[in-house]
């Protein structure tokens, strides 16, 4: 099992509470609440910064993608790594109009990690894992994007989908051309903080309860089989379009249940809401793109595990 020694705080907490005689579910709930509470102020600050960036720069970032040309996968990876609410959906709209290539679309999907980065930022003890996480995700996104574009010879894509009004509306939700209002930024930030905090708390309770009564070895070896099976399961789970998945994967990683290769594979497969809109537009094309995304995510996790990167 991978251990970066970057998230020792989480382990110290659980070493202090787990595997003790007569521990009740109420104790697990209490400890999970105590663990989650300090994250809230950091999440609020993080989301305020993210919200401001979304309102201030989203329109310009979209324009950079439109004009990226052969640099599409690079620009897509660098912009996709920023935790924005609708950029992956925006990428679907641009791809459907043949403005960006399939490689650029995939690079954005892989770089996107939904709420993973804010969760990392909410845990000071995990800060050492942030740069390896970002660098690895960006590298995979760029390499995969160019590989796909080379395979498709960057020919004009016959996308077989045309962005509907629903996709356009969702893609433009984060593009605010009006004056930035702090009240709007604050309200949305608090809403996202509340949602993510609830997810973190629930996931922490569930994982802690299982570890408390069955041990981390059981959780890692049964629910998340060790070795390449763990990478496969993480990649599969990552395809689920819900921010609770990214929160859960980060928590499993910081609690040493899954390794670095698995969290990278799972979060590379996690493209936010984009897959939902792809399937609404064209199921056949969406299945094709989803299989590519899953294959690249799983293969990346395997390569990281074989090479022992950050292990």
- Structure summary, number of beta strands: 0
Poorly predicted runs are 1-22
Rounded to the nearest angstrom, the radius of gyration is 20 Å
The H/E string reads HHHHHHHHHHHHHHHH
| Number of separate helices | 16
Task: Let me know the average pLDDT.
Answer: 79
Specify the structural class: mainly alpha
Transmembrane segments: 32-50, 70-95, 102-121, 127-148, 198-216, 228-250, 257-280, 286-310
Pfam families: ArsP_2
Organism: Clostridium cylindrosporum DSM 605
Keywords: Membrane, Transmembrane, Transmembrane helix
Descriptive terms for the model:
transmembrane, disordered N terminus, globular, transmembrane helix, ArsP_2, 311 residues, Permease, mainly alpha
Q: Could you characterize what this model shows?
A:
- It comes from Clostridium cylindrosporum DSM 605.
- It holds the Pfam family ArsP_2.
- InterPro entries: ArsP_2 (IPR021552).
- The chain crosses the membrane at residues 32-50, 70-95, 102-121, 127-148, 198-216, 228-250, 257-280, 286-310.
- By secondary structure, the chain is mainly α.
- The chain has one domain (8-307).
- The chain is 71% helix and 0% strand.
- The protein contains 16 helices and no strands.
- It has helices spanning 8-17, 25-36, 39-66, 72-80, 87-96, 102-111, 116-121, 130-151, 165-171, 182-214, 216-223, 228-238, 243-254, 260-268, 274-281, 283-307.
- 47% of the residues are buried.
- The model is unreliable at 1-22 (pLDDT under 50).
